[in-house]
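Quick one:
INPUT:
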């Protein structure tokens, strides 16, 4: 990681933060502490994997915020809205981005593995947007929700519930991140299917974890399970890519 890259990253993220404040929406998207941690995250990503990874994370942040705000009044009335009206704090930033950040830092430490780690990075964010879109749009538009472990019908917004509408929205979110990463040459075109499949599979696994584990221990929070989701997405993305390469 060259010092010039770090200085460039600091400047870019300072400008991005200033623009966010200029819109008047900064604290609607992130808490004050969340903004600081997002600045650290953004600086790290630009310094390590460049603008492609940084903008992929920005796309995730913006898209995740948009879907979270959909029908917010209805979600609040039903008691199923995200806390702080969807403003992300440090725990949300790192729950979503810890795996991707680890991939970015590892790509600098082990440049010979950078192509694989970029796939892991992409799959981790695709998995998280898949989960966020499925959850938030499932709450907003899901007509019938079922508990993923028993298929028992439950109210939309129930932890561990899935719906047809939410599942479709999640797949679209995963595709958005994956196709953007391909379009910016962060990952090769052939990585699209492995990343997309990994994201959807990881998001469904996260639903099972939420239904069976969340709340069993004080430390087993939604943010911890989100971090597990992104690690699983990254690992599956790399594994599916290697399997695809082996068969080709």
């Amino acid at each position: 990681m060259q010092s010039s890259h770090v200085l460039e990253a600091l400047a870019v993220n300072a400008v991005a933060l200033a623009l966010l404040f200029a819109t008047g929406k900064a604290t609607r998207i992130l808490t004050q502490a969340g903004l600081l941690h997002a600045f650290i995250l953004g600086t790290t990503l630009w310094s390590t994997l460049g603008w492609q990874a940084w903008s992929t994370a920005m796309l995730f942040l913006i898209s995740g915020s948009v879907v979270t705000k959909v029908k917010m009044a209805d979600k609040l009335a039903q008691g199923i809205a995200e806390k702080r009206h969807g403003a992300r704090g440090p725990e949300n930033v790192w729950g979503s981005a810890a795996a991707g950040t680890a991939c970015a830092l590892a790509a600098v430490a082990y440049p010979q593995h950078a192509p694989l780690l970029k796939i892991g990075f992409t799959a981790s964010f695709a998995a998280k947007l898949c989960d966020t879109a499925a959850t938030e749009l499932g709450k907003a538009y899901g007509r019938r929700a079922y508990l993923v472990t028993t298929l028992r019908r439950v109210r939309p917004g129930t932890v561990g519930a899935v719906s047809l509408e939410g599942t479709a929205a999640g797949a679209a979110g995963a595709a958005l991140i994956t196709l953007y990463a391909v379009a910016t040459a962060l990952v090769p075109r052939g990585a699209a299917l492995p990343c997309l499949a990994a994201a959807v599979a990881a998001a469904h696994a996260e639903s099972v974890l939420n239904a069976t584990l969340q709340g069993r221990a004080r430390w087993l929070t939604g943010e911890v399970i989100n971090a597990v989701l992104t690690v699983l997405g990254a690992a599956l993305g790399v594994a599916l890519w290697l399997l695809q390469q082996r068969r080709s």
